[in-house]
Amino acid sequence: MAEMVKKATRESYGEALAELSEKYPQVVVLDADLAAATKTGVFKKACPDRFIDCGISECNMVGVAAGLATCGKIPFATSFAMFSAGRAFEQVRNSVGYPKLNVKIVGSHAGISVGEDGATHQCNEDIALMRTIPGMVVLNPADHYEMKAAVKAAIEHHGPVYLRLGRLAVESFNNADDYRFELGKGVTLRDGRNITIVATGLMVSRALKAVKTLEEQGIDARLINIHTIKPLDRELIIKAAKETGKIITVEEHNVIGGLGDAVCGAVCEAFPVPVIKVGVNDVYGHSGPAVDLLDEFGLNAGHIVEVTKKALQK
Amino acid sequence: MNKTEKNQLQKLACKVRMGAIEGVYNAKSGHPGGSLSAADLFTYLYFREMKIDPKNPKEENRDRFVLSKGHCAPGLYATLALKGYFPMEEMKKLRHIGAMLQGHPDMKGTPGVDMSTGSLGQGVSAACGMAAAGKMDHKDYRVYSILGDGEIEEGQVWEAAMFAAHHKLDNLCLIVDNNGLQIDGSVAEVGGPEPIDEKFRSFGFDVQVINGHDFDEIEAAFHHARTVKGRPSAIIAKTVKGKDVSFMENQVGWHGTAPNAEQYETAMQDLNRVLSGLEAE
Predict the structure, then answer these.
(1) How confident is the model over A151-168, as a mean pLDDT?
(2) Residue among A27, A56, A60, A84 with most chain B CBs within 10 A, to mutate
């Protein structure tokens, strides 16, 4: 058993870039004056010649990344999710997505757990934005080991990728020695029969706690970790719909346009079952300590347990 | 350049204009005005300046071109066709369903197009990325980008300009097609980006202001740009929108309008007259 790590996925991202730098000399990392926060500074230290600070100009950064990609580089254009996926959306769509360039757009400090910086910095829309771009792969890894594997997978996938990073430290639940990451494949963490909980990113470890509580109360819930929101593992989701009848989705994102809607889309077409979405309910956040905010917005194990039990009563 | 060489380029530029009109007329939509104003710049770049090979459009060490004002694709396409990247016949299918030539440049489907563009301001950033890659890999290719004077109202252009100067991209040469008109009126009235040369100078560029229809001045400017070290170049080319088509010259309405059959005939007569004059020289 590997050592239990509690770390923000942004830290794992920076570490992974630095560790993989030698094996993948085409990787170039760009940032927009946030290298200390997004942890690209770790890569900068390891490979100063392959790091470009674009200054506070995210739209230009995405365009520069596109130009680099046309010359054979694998650029990781990194900023807070609000800016890389939000502010530069059109640049991502037209300069990266449309020409299908090999650019990785990285959104750090995603979701409500940015905390004290408040609503302007809490990006609960990035998954929705990036999902709508044709051909864009959308990754939202859940822990340290998964993030490291996701960075490698993003490098090895030829084409545009959006990678979502979190600010808050999360407990790892994967095992470094035997964890196999496969792009586009969900991971079944608990194989229950009563109901299925589908979670992504930071919420997976919280959903895992919820499942344990439910188990103590005699409820046999299946738990699926969706690290790749697009392309979605439809097969696994539809199988769960057929076998358990009901689905709860859990994400640190607006309930509009994110994992919940992706799951609804798959299930509606193939095997309609009730899908209850746990997420940010189409409202803005506000300032406060990250963990308190997650509680306030119902993004915790207790709330997942409640919602699940209620769903089973219906 | 000698008189024969200049005459050769002028004839080619006239054919670029004819190709652009042909394309826009057949498409029944598109952007003739800026295609005609930039025709001499396209011609010089593709026939004299850039190190490129139409038989090997993806060659690693080639010079790169980004049409940041992507709506002037008809002018670029006609130039690429004349240079031999694809048959001129393709111009007749411009903007048609299934056509190789899309309304705005698409690098996925058109040989010779180095970057997909059309959303204004974005091409300059991509050109910066290409130039940065060249520096990183110690390659000696150069990157050229034509942008519109209206286009530089986009903030991203100035983000890119700051980036280019800060990173000392002396392998980058921006050419502003300064025809003075944009969709809603004159550039001076609508967005007011003048004085353009002073702006680029203050952003750290080597700046030249030239007549964008005079091949001697165009040649001298590109020659000078090659000698500049440690900073990017900007060539502000004063041009006439709709150049050489009598009823289009300096007319705001011809930014994005296709000629009807009668206007097409007049335009082709105008351009044929120019060509005959050049052939008689």
Answers:
(1) 98
(2) A60
Between B64, B107, B163, which is nearest A60 by CB? B163
Burial B188-216 (b: 16+ CB within 10 A, else e): eeebebeebbebbeebbbbbbbbebbebe
Run of H or E including B280? helix B261-280
Percent of chain A with pLDDT over 90: 96
- Work out the minimum CA distance from A56 to partner chain B, whole angstroms: 9
Pairing assessment for the beta strands A195-199 and A221-225 based on DSSP bridges: parallel
pLDDT of residue A177: 75
Active-site residue (options: A15, A19, A22, A58): A58
The CA distance from A298 to A279, in Å, is: 7
Pick from A149, A132, A136: nearest CA to A104: A136
Of B137, B15, B27, B174, whose CA–CA distance to B79 is shortest?
B15
Q: Nearest residue on chain A to B160, judged by CA atoms?
A: A60
Q: What is residue A31's DSSP assignment?
A: E
Cβ-based neighbour number of residue B276 at 10 Å: 10
How many angstroms separate the Cα of B41 from the Cα of each of A267, A297, B47, B183, B230? 55, 58, 10, 21, 24
**One-letter amino acid for residue A294 of the chain:** L
Residues of chain A contacting residue B155, judged by C-beta atoms under 8 Å apart: 59
Distance from CA of A258 to the nearest CA of B (A): 27
Q: What distance in Å separates the CA atoms of residue B82 and residue B90, rounded to the nearest whole number?
A: 11
Which positions ≥6 away from B214 have C-beta within 8 Å?
none
> Mutation test of the interface with chain A: which of B156, B158, B171, B172, choosing the one with the most A Cβ atoms within 10 A?
B156
Contacts of B166 in chain A (CB under 8 A): 55
* A90/B125 Cβ within 8 A: no
Residue A2 has pLDDT above 60, yes or no: no
- Confidence class of residue A175 from pLDDT cuts 50, 70 and 90? confident
Spatial separation of the C-alpha atoms in residues A91 and A110, rounded to whole Å: 19
Q: How far apart are CA B76 and CA B66, in angstroms?
A: 10
Instruction: Give B70-121 pLDDT, tens digit per residue.
Output: 999 999 999 999 999 999 999 999 999 999 999 999 999 999 999 999 999 9
Residue reference for tokens 């170039």:
A28
Measure the CA angle with vertex A82, ends A167 and A123; round to 5°.
65
8 Å CB contact between A148 and A12: yes
3-state DSSP assignment of residue B176: strand
Say how far apart CA A309 and CA B130 lie, in whole Å: 55
pLDDT in tens, A86-95: 999 999 999 9
Give the pTM. Answer: 0.97
Q: Is A58 a known active-site residue?
A: yes
Which pLDDT score is estimated for A3? 65
- Distance CA(A150)–CA(A8), nearest Å, equals 14
* pLDDT at residue B223, rounded to an integer: 98
Sequence-distant (6+) residues with CB within 8 A of A36 are: none
A31-50 b/e (C-beta count within 10 Å ≥ 16 → b) = bbebbebbbbbbbbebbeeb
